[in-house]
Sequence to fold (288 residues):
Amino acid sequence: MRITAPAKFRHASDLRPAETSSDPREPSFRDSEVVVDLRPCQFVWPTAILWCATYMLLARQRETSSQLLVPENTGVAVYLKSAGLFEILKNEGIKVDDRQLYAGPNIQAALPLTRFRSTVDVENITNQAFDALTKMNLGVGNLYPLITETFAELAMNAVQHSDSSIGAFGIIQFYDEGANRRFVCAVAHGGIGIRRSLERNPQLSRRIFYDWDAIELATKERISGTGDPTRGIGLYGVADDMRRPSSQLIIHSGIGMLRITEQIESESKRVRVLFPGTLVFASIQFRS
Fold:
C-alpha cells in the first residue's frame, strides 16, 4: 500500500480515502508493505507529522514493512528531521532515507515531536516546554501558562483514556505571520478513540452511535467514560478556552471531526479519512 501526501499536507483529511481505508489498529490489517510518500510535499503542518508517526508505528506493530519517502523539497525535509519525525520512525525499524540532510534544533519548536506514555512523562515534558518558551523570550509571557496548560490537559487525556499500544505524541510550535504569531500545540495517539472511550460509561453508551457525535459530546462539561462525576473537565475547559478570539480547536477521532472557534460554537461532521486513534490540535494567535 502506498499513501501519497499532497503538496500542502495539513492533516489526515488531505489524504486520498482509497489509500487510507485500512485501519492499522485492527487485526484484519493485512498490508505487507506500507509506504508513505511525502516527496511531493511543499508544506507539512504539525498535525500531518502526528498522523505520520501514529499511522506508521501502528502499521509497524503489525509486522508490516514500512517506509517513509522524505520530501524532495530540502527545506521541508530538514524541517521534518529537526522536528524529530525521522528519528522516531527509524528507532522503530521504519525505513527513512534522510542521507545528507543536516538539521539542527528547530528554533520555532518549544516541544519537538515527543513520545510519552505516563503522567510523569506529561509533567516532565510540559515543564520542558514552559522553560523553552520562557527562554525564547517572545514577549508574550502571559500566554505561556495557557499554552502549556492546554498541552498538559490534552496529553493527560491521551495517557489516561487512550489505551494506545504505541503511547502518544505531542508537539508545540510557534509561527511568525507578519504582525502576528501563532502558537500550535497538538497531541495524538493510536488508541481506542473517543467513541469507544465514552462507551465504557453505561450512561453514555446509549447516547452515542458515531464518532462525530461522540467528539461533540466529549467537549461538554463532566462527560467522561469513567462515569466519575468529578471527571470530564479537562477537554471541556480546553474547548472553552479555544472560543477566544483568533483561536481554534480541531479534534479528529476515527471518522469524526469537530472544529471550535470564536465564531463557530461547534461543527462536528463525518470525514472521509479515518484517524486511527485521536488527534487534538489547538491554535492560538496573538499580535506581536
Q: What stands out?
A: The radius of gyration is 18 Å. The domain at 107-288 is CATH 3.30.565.10 (Heat Shock Protein 90). The mean pLDDT is 89. DSSP finds nine helices and eleven strands in the chain.
